[in-house]
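User: Just a sanity check before I run the rest of the batch. Below are the structure tokens for the first item. I only need the designed sequence back.
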């Protein structure tokens, strides 16, 4: 009886160890950074990249407009802005609806001079160039995100009112 119980415990231990190893591997794979391909256009979050086309564009299709936005500056020049993290694509069509370009876009965080303060599961992001200042990054702790976003909006409103012809009066 004792030997059989010991065998069952050993079997359960091996099964548990295998499950734990599988879960760890799955977590590591799911948390791996997005891998860029050679042909990808890499755009940093909250920044823009230019994309020149060989002929004028008539229509733009964005796979996921929450990840990237496109503005046509001239018939052949596109400005692509990273709005949130992820992968999408942008299809540029000419007047005859022929595909000029189908471009995969990868939006990533600019890690240079970025610092994350981790408080348990809560994250706060800072841009340190050269002093560290709060920055609004998707995935930050909600109260921190809201406070920094609100302060940024207030500053923007002040800037806009001071830039008006009446000087804000």
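Assistant: Here's the designed sequence for the first item:
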């Amino acid at each position: 009886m004792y030997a059989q119980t010991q065998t069952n415990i050993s079997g359960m231990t091996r099964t548990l160890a295998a499950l734990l190893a599988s879960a760890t591997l799955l977590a590591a794979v799911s948390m791996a950074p997005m891998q860029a391909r050679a042909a990808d256009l890499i755009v940093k979050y909250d920044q823009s990249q230019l994309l020149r086309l060989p002929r004028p564009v008539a229509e733009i299709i964005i796979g996921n407009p929450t990840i990237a936005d496109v503005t046509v500056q001239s018939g052949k020049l596109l400005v692509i802005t990273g709005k949130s993290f992820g992968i999408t694509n942008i299809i540029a069509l000419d007047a005859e609806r022929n595909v000029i370009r189908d471009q995969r876009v990868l939006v990533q965080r600019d890690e240079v001079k970025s610092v994350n303060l981790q408080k348990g599961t809560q994250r706060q992001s800072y841009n340190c160039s050269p002093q560290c200042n709060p920055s609004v990054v998707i995935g930050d702790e909600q109260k921190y995100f809201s406070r920094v976003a609100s302060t940024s909006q207030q500053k923007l409103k002040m800037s806009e009112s001071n830039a008006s012809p009446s000087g804000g009066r």
